[in-house]
Design brief:
single chain; alpha+beta; Nuclear Transport Factor 2, Chain: A; 3 helices
């Protein structure tokens, strides 16, 4: 870890990255998500419990198959250990997927890695009903 970073700095930066991720999801901003998701990302969740890659997620955003109208954070816990971080998000999401409306309270667990020059990026994520 770069000695210029303190655990407090990295924790604050991770909290900001998580909130940028939430904002990008709400906006359907695939370019912002591209910067926040590691190329090796595996996401487990969604309505069918399937696994998705970064490219799957970006395609869903770019095609506008998913359109979120609400991402409301109820709770956020952040843990940093070296170059690894974990966020636990609980919140309410609303929108449409393939033009079918949905509303749900979900828990997201995201594992992040801190890369020099790139900052925090999600490498693994899981969602389940809250």
């Amino acid at each position: 870890m770069n000695e210029a970073y303190t655990t407090e700095d990295l924790t604050s930066a991770l909290r900001e990255a998580e909130r940028r991720l939430q904002a990008a999801q709400l906006a359907g901003d695939a370019d912002a998500l591209d910067d926040l998701l590691d190329d090796r990302l595996i996401y487990t969740g969604g309505p069918d419990g399937a696994r998705y890659s970064k490219q799957d997620d970006l395609e869903i955003q770019r095609s506008r198959r998913q359109k979120l109208s609400k991402v409301e954070e109820e709770d956020l816990v952040v843990l940093v250990d070296g170059h690894t971080g974990v966020t636990w998000f609980r919140g309410a999401l609303e929108g449409t997927f393939d033009d079918v409306p949905f509303a749900a309270r979900l828990n997201f667990t995201r594992t992040w890695i801190h890369l020099p020059g790139s900052g925090w990026r999600v490498i693994a994520a899981h969602a389940s009903p809250a």
